[in-house]
What we know:
eight-stranded antiparallel sheet, 4 helices
Amino acid sequence: MVPPSDAPVRDAGLAALAELLAGPVVPAARGLLGCRLSTGGVTVRITEVEAYAGTAGDPASHAHRGRTPRNAVMFGPAGYAYVYFTYGMHWCVNVVTGPDGEASAVLLRAGEVVEGVEAARARRAAVRRDVDLARGPARLCAALGIDKAVYGRYLLGDGPVRLRPAVEPVPEAAVTAGPRVGVTGAHDVPWRFWLAGDPTVSGYRRHVPRSRR
């Protein structure tokens, strides 16, 4: 898989984002905070992410046991969308990172709707507060109208789904790290990153194994 031939000439910011995504997943995850994802008439500023390292000793990753038809896009190259269906009802979107052939991705957990608020409200009519429109990975996808059609889309081009750098750099002091949410393996690894104090960040729930009778 290679970037489409109609990818735009990158400015310095977009080139830097592409370079960041091609590197290790943890710095890439932190660097995605403040970036903007646009599709379906809505733009979301990313406020919370989680890093997943694929086959490199990360049992929480979908690629931990190797390549499958479901996770194939995670093996690169970087800059593509990995979308999956969970709990039989929700879509979640990830940004593929790392060198080609080494699976890793960053789950987009939450964001602030900065453009297309009315379109996001129409998709999430039961939501009362705008800060809740994309607060959580499934809600983020619902607000943007993301589903399986976005799987494998190149995000740094001029296609229907576009990832762009932050308008302003996010200072280190504004970023907090902590354990990932709801995973059964490596749940205490501090690979979740979020903008401190931002009201759109989702709540933390540590995974609790079900008791066996």
